[in-house]
Amino acid sequence: MKIELKIQRSWPVVVLALTLIPFAGWASDAFRIGEPVSVAGGGLGDGGPALSASVLPLDVLAAPDGRILIADEQFNRVRAVSVDGRISTVVGSGRYRDDDGFPVAALASSLRVPAGMALSPDGSLLYVVDLGNRRISVVEADGALRTFVGPEHPLFATVPGEFAPAGVAVGPEGKVHVADRGQNVVWQFEPEGRQAAGRKVAGNGTRGFGGDGGPSALGQVADPRAVVVGSDGSIYVADFANRRVRKVGPDGRIQTVAGNGREDPWGGISLPALAASLKPVDVALDRDGRLLILDGLENRVLRLRDGQLLVVARLGEGSEVTGLSVDGEGRILVADAGLRRVLALEESANGFEAAVVAVAGNGSIRASGDGQQAENASLYQPFGMSYDDDGNLYLVDRLNHLVRRILVDGRIERIAGTGVAGFSGDGGPALEAALNKPTSVAVGPDGVVFVADAGNHRIRAIDTSGRIVTVAGTGEAMFAGDGGPAVESALSSPAGLSLDWRGGGLLIADSGNGRIRRLHEDGTISTVAGSGSTWPVDDGGPPLESPLLWPVDVRADRNGRIFIADAGAHRVYRLGEDGLLWVVAGTGEAGLGADGSAGPSAALNRPLGIEPDGAGGLFIADSGNQRVLHLDADGLLRELATSPGQPTRLARSPAGGLLYSDSQMHRIFRLPLERLWPPPSQRVRLADAGAYTLETIAALTLPGLLDVVADPALDRVYATHRKGVLLISGDGEREFVAHFAARDYSAVPVPTTGGGWGLAIGTPGELGRDFPLTRIEQGPWGPRYKPILLRLEGADALARNAPGDLFIHQRRGRVLRLAGAAGGDGRERDLTNVDLEEYAALPAGQALLAVDARGRLVVALVESLELLRVEDTDRDGKNTDFGELRRVAQLSERPVALAAGAGGSVYVATSGGRIFRMPGGDGAEMTLFADGFAPGLLGISVGAGGALYALEGDESGGRLIRITPAAPKLAVWPQVLSFAEQPVGQRATRTVVLRNDGGLPLVAAAEITGAASLVGWDGEIQLEPGEAQAFEVTIVPVAKGRTTDELVWRDRGRGGDVLLRLPVEVTGVAPELRVAAGVDLGTVWVGGAGTSVIGLTNTGSLPLEILGLEVSGEMSALGTAVFAATGGPFEVALDSENFLAQGGGEGEILVTLRPRERGDFESTLFIHTNDPVTPVRAVRLTGAGGRAQLTLPEVLDLGVARVGQRLRRRLELKNEGELDLEIDGVLTGTGVLIATTRRLLVKAGETGVLELEFRPLEPGSVEGVLTLLTNDPRTPEWKLPFLGRGVSSLLEVSEAVHDFESTALGQTRRWVLTVKNLGSRPVRIGSVKSDGRQFNVVGETPFQLAPGATGVIAVEFRPTRLGVSTATLTLRTDLGEARAVKIQLVGRGLVASRLEIGTAVIRDGEEERGDETVWVWPGEEVALPILIEEARQLRGLAMSLALPSEEMAFAGLAFPAASVFAGGQLLVVERTDREGLLELGVALTGQRAAEGVSGSGLIGLLRLKVGRLRSRDLEVALTRVVYVSSTGQADTVATPESSVSLNLRLKGDFDGDGRLGLMDFFSLAEAAASGALPDESAGFDLDRDGVLGAGDIRLLLLHMRPEIAAKAVAQQQSPKAVALLPPYPNPFNAAITLGFVLPREEAVQLVVFNMIGQQVRQLVATTKGAGMHQVAWDGRDQAGRPVKTGVYFAVLSTPEVRKVERVILLR
User: Is the pLDDT of residue 13 over 50?
Assistant: First the structure.
């Protein structure tokens, strides 16, 4: 479906009649206003059936007279259902406000949601819970509603929280009980209320559950919702949050009667009350006094009987029970807010659940009444309205989400929306489409209805067939799409619509985007007004550059002007023919503007609706001020009506009058209006319209309005009336400056000494006043009244000349002069008793006075219609001669006011509503100046600049009009050219609009100062009246902060006068870094690090970027971000983001000082930023390096302490460094030394003491290291060795057990016992005895030991038998703790004293010294002698030997004739144990076994076969020996300490690898060829002929393995290939030999590589000859550095061959 947007450029709305009717009172200026009449939405249903009414019941209450009272949240009222079923309102007007507790008629009162009700026992008082106002109100018998108790009651200050009543009940004695959910208390008040006495009857004010069985006022309740009082005074409380019902008995104790505190739904019809889950919403008592509970958990009514809860009734799905009551017939009444009904439960006699019957409420939302008369329908926040050409009214029912139509016959119907908020239905029937809070509607001439679907952010259209479609907006709340299809654009909460009859299209108030947009006829969209910003808010600017804060309504009149209601700015704007946006009403601040003020100076409060009046004016719904206003075509604002609700939107009725929707009263009202006359600009005619301009200053609704008085000297205007004087400013603001009562008087301005206002007041004589001539002037605390003349019959008219003379006219025809009375110099004079001089004689009757610019008195005679000029022609000071009174004009109408203007001109206002003017020259004629004033003129006066002020109207009110000579008037938008904040150094441009608001053309030239520069401007502008021109101003701020300059325009055609000064303001903004000038890190540990943080704050108005840091030097790259730098011992790093937000964004630079030595340090940190003014900031960095230095002894001597004794020690620690040393812990490594000082601070230059305890746990020496854990980063642990001894006794013996070890029988072994006195007194050794015969003491006893002295005692062991012998050596002393010191003695008698391996090496029967080099061939045998000393009856022995297994192998035992076992039969046993030790056993058998052998000598020869000799030093060790005697005794010697080292080498082993190989062969051959004899010639001169030659080579080949020998011979004869010989030793530690063979001279490289292929060392890189070559590698790299343990590869390379050998290095 497609809707074409075609709008006729005509005005189809009926224009209000402009016919003037006879004036019948000032009314509201131009209108006669009737009382507002409701035309739609009265839909309360009052007076009709209750079941047809719409309600939202929060509580229900049965009244004694049979009525049912309903607390109706929907209409914010208390309503009553009569016994005949009809509903009416009894409390509340529907307004949501606070009446401040003052008594007011119940039906006129304001509530904020009634939530609970209760009646006094006699039914005369109705108590109402006013939820929103947090008070209990009471309706008294006289129908007045007042506050019973509110939050201001002092009782509520005694507990925490705020008073928030939820339920109310009245007891049988009339006491009022209030359930206070805010303070968790149930209160009881006396019936007097307000400040009446009250008390807590349940709850202590602390939310919770507790106190059952105790005093109720000490218990705890939580969110009490309802309360009811029984006939015995028992109080039942719906303890909602505790999910229980509580009872306060007559004894004042509280207990739970129902509920288990949980929410577990339960079925069935009964359950023990204390086991049931509840959600108690309300409580009541039935006629039998039994408790009824309204349970919100399952929406049912329960009855408590005999401890059981019985289900009375269950309500249906969708129910939300809120209130409970019982009527006089015993019926239970239930308020069901969910289904919007009030129900009655009719219980059956058989005990089944009660039947449910509705007694009130139609169950629907507010939208009701379709098809009925609109005044009886229900609306829910009606908003926008629009008439079609047939007179049908379309309206949006906002919160019902509907669009409805009121037909010409008054019936209402729904045309769009389902009543449920949402979005659906596009392309289908509008009645099935969902809307979301529609706000406005507009009807086109073709019948298309446009709807602002605000909640869906769309504009939708309904065609004449009833189908709906979206025409603008995507549904996303944002701004987008200008210039493109409207259906693809984005709107935000569109709130107002208007057809633009002249400009075309549909205007949209796009509220959320702050814009007015136009939906064009071609389906595109554009912005008409609003910049989307909030600045600048000035008058007369370009619409697209002017901000709209929250435009809610828009209207276009027939003249093409667009009006905008901006609720956010509290203003109404006009977009006129000049293309500029003008403020027509509102000051920009919320307030209540004075009635009759000029629109721009009158404050509004959230104007939500506007409607053109068809005559150039505008109606305004000033919603926040609850009034409807009219702004006439002259810009004057008048109040038409006030509303108890909130007038929201407006529409002119074709039948006459004005409609306004009231979103708070939920109604549409018609305000009858009848236009009386047009505004002055449309009816007052100026004779010379081009020479003057006319404007209306103010409308005054004042009783007894008299005259207007202008003071040219002060540029002030006064309106006089019968109750005082009103001062009126140029923009219509008014202020009462004097209050008094006078039926008639005249006034003239007079000067004052203080520069304030002053008036001389004269009253006619017939009034009989005591002070007929009075001076009133401005005082410091209000007006001051001072009599001028006391003796005066009266003053009918007054005039004043420049010198200050007062002229006084009296009705009898005299004009009196009082010289200087008006104080021309401002000084006061006491004139109360001065005589008056008669200045002129006139005919009796009423006259008007004025003094012209030449000082001549001008008189208008009212009865004779003459205008006279009084001149002192004879200069006698009097004007009584006839010739001195000259008639200058004869008037045609009765003069009512007279004024003198510039140049001697005179103005006369007449009774016909005309003003005549006569120029000041002689012979000038009186001509018509202006006419059309209605209903008449009250006064005229000439003010500053020759402006003529005219007051039209009558005694009930009037308008003040100013007529000024036409002149150019230059105005500007904006009034202050503010560039706001602009980055320093960047250009900014603003638009300036100049207008000529005057009546003459102007030519102006501009002067500009400061930093501003004009672009595209030739310096001169010409503007016709009403013309405007825009240009641009560009500015470049050069400094931070605010600068103010001016643009000045001078009048080129009028002498260069200044026409306008436009302030130019700009605030140069830039990031600005605030940082400390320096930071001192103090003294920092050498080897440690000290840190400090430099705080960075961006105090500027733009984000700050840190570009880099630099420390005492050039930063490496300023073009890149460098956020860390180092300079000397200082390191800096940015410890935050490098962007700091404007207005206080913070960051940190971490500064670290790492001193490597002692001393002071200084550097400078440079911070580079994007601040254009100060791009680099310097911060001085200072600090020092220091240490702590302790003076400690080399060793801490703890002394000697007896075991178990505590010995205290003090260790003094002197700190000779610069920093305090913190000792955080002391470690000793042992439990015998304890540091009782755990932590210690040793300040620089001071000494600290460390307390220690030495407590040995066992005898013996104690050694260790005392470790001090400190804060010194270089030496975190200070170590001090300590020594001490623990002793069992103070008599110390050298050994407590002495082992004489094994001793051969018959031999003697001596031992010396050392005894030391460790005590402090002498010790006497009385005796020393041994209890063993084989142990003897040698020496004399007794003897004495001095303190610290040492003595010795010798003891000998001489075994007489084999085996172990023991004894105890006892020393008798005079020590108390050690009178008998015992030493254990142990000895062993052995078969033999020693078995050892001899050092001689026996080879081929010859003996050689084993400690010299012995040259052997591979496989050759050598023998070592085994010797024994002092054997006794030795039968056999067993021994364990450790052999170098790879170098030597066991070949057997030999027993030569010299053996002690020779001649006997021997048994030899051989085996190798698990540890690789060789075990040999030798034993005699036969007859000699019984005798054994004795003596010393050779046991036998140990035969060993030579293998590969890897080491030169070979050790053969005897590790264990077992001797066996002839008697069978076996003695084991575990460590006989017998071993021999052999220096064996292989003959011919040149490379020392322990085997004979190719390298040895070539080395011998090379040596033989050179004739050189090696140092160890015995090993290489194999044939022992003294030279190396062929014989040696032959012997070498004979002892080599055959295959190796063959290879060697072949290589020697002619090497055929390059060979890399096996390295030796491999693995190696210190060095390794690498050998290689070349068949010919070649270039060769030998290089060592690591595992990953990196070169480690180049060993050979040269040309070598044919033959074998050797080189050593010491395990270092090319730079001489040791390499790590690992696998390496030796690579030999020639031009044709590459050989590799693996090498293993072990460190």
Answer: no
